[in-house]
# Entry
Amino acid sequence: MAGDRDQHRSGAGRELEGKVVVVTGGASGNGRAIALACAEEGAHVVIADLRESPREGGVPTALLAREQGVRSCFVPCDVTRLDDLDDAMEAADTFGGIDVMVNNAGILLKGSILDATEEAYDRLMGINVKGVYFGSQAAARRMVPRGGGVIVNLSSIAGMRGTAGYGLYNASKGAVRLLSMGLADELGPSGVRVNALHPGIIDTQMNVADDPVIGTTAGERYLDLIPLRRWGRPSDVAQAVVFLASDRSAYITGASLVVDGGYLRT
# Structure
């Protein structure tokens, strides 16, 4: 076993060795876990986020990633601003050029359609849909001339099933799912694979603070609906992204991978 660990540290056999990965929303939560998992598999990572410090506390993701012997950097990025997305691509260029784009940045707003405001709509759709669309565009413009690449778009189980009070979030994540299918069809002939990932209830600040589910009496009832009887971990999402980014999924595109402990049982 010790020999296996030493081999992993040396970089031999790592799934993403030498690849360049951009992760939006990569400072915290699922994005942080994704960036670190990619670094552990040998990828150089660009952390594109509004803030450098993780919401959950700890060492900034870019600094922690370097402990894996890879290059990494933080780039301030508002995914609704196309210039910021281009800045992230340029940072990837300094590492050799983007191979994998993970459009992870997203927010959750909950409420009845009877009380919804145009401001809330524009904010959520801007980040969750516009950010993914133009993040994919920025990456594809570099991947197509290079002859290939991988785009992983973070949707949600909310993009596959509607729930009262989550209509706007459902709409945004459903859009990400179909966008990913359309891009897979369009970009596939150029060697670019595009897939959507649908996390369930993951133990991040989104489900602890933004929309409290985990740690609440009502929320705990959801556990009885999850066959694996536990909340998802950011590492569960991260390992799924590594799979989709790696050559192990070389013949997978236009797919929706659900990571929810069996909650939807699709």
In short: The chain has one domain: 16-259. The first strand starts at residue 20 and ends at 24. Residues 16-259 form a domain with the Rossmann fold fold (CATH 3.40.50.720). Confidence is low (pLDDT under 50) at residues 1-11.
